Amino acid sequence: MIKVIKPGIQLTIQDLGRVGFRHLGVSRSGSLDAYAHIIANRLVNNHDNDAVLELTVGLCELQFECDTVIALHGADLNAKLDAQAVYPGWSYPVKAKQTLKFDTGRGGSRAYIAVKGGIECPEVMGSKSTDLGAAIGGFNGRALQSDDIIKITPYTQPWLCNKGALTPPKRKVIRLHQGPHHELLTPECINAFCTTSFTINPNSNRMGVRLDHNNSQIMQHSLSLHSLAVAPGSVQLPPDGNPIVLLNDAQTTGGYPLIGHVIEADLHQFAQFRTADSITFEFVTLEQATAAKSKLDAHLSQLKLSLNRYWAN
């Protein structure tokens, strides 16, 4: 078991999400940085979809009540296992009564903590992910709090793995497809969107990232549209001209114009942006998006092959 001493800003249980229920109004949820989630799990020889802990910003403290093995990935939040520094991209054996602490960190926003064997909790609609809006999944449908007990399976075998994993590079230029309402917006609006440097608004969360900029007057509009389906990665443009990039806990329909949709290879980047970070956008073709996804998948495949050879020995 793991006891939560301090949960930090937000600590939730997540797997890769709740798939196949959007037509019922159920959000996908799941780890915002799916690649960090998968890498952390692979470092402890878990299944990719095994539940992990998603920690936002840091200031968290966990006490282990049994022996296990952990791996970290995603944000570097200055983690320490007792007095020992531990780093993203590596696995570490843990003894009962050891404490894992996180500070505010050197880079990134969300860290992922994989535990050998995964986090134990009931599945809801085929997923263990916490949906905070619907209050389902994870730990009674809510973020973890002090004194909560997280169930895990003890692991007492020797752990000698010295294999690590690099973090995919952080991008400041986010690639996206044109949205269905692209042609309804003025050329001036589209040009401003493509040439503006946006900053991350502090009111961003797991539902979406709000973007601030200096060209909001040019991007303002008065379009009135029927609601349509949206998904993680959809970029909405409200009348005030400040875009919103929808993430995993977002609603399933929306009435704002969709100026674009972030490509799958770049969407995980939004899990790691911090308040006041700056980004720009560029539109790409389907072929370019597919190539970017293939490149990222190749990185994961290479890691899996390397680790599988290690486990086989």
UniProtKB/TrEMBL annotation:
Transmembrane segments: none annotated. InterPro entries: CT_A_B, Cyclophilin-like_dom_sf, PxpC. One of its GO terms (molecular function) is ATP binding. Residues 23-299 form the Carboxyltransferase domain. Keywords: ATP-binding, Hydrolase, Nucleotide-binding. Pfam families: CT_A_B. Gene3D superfamilies: Cyclophilin-like. This is Carboxyltransferase domain-containing protein. It comes from Pseudoalteromonas tetraodonis GFC. The lineage of its organism: Bacteria, Pseudomonadati, Pseudomonadota, Gammaproteobacteria, Alteromonadales.
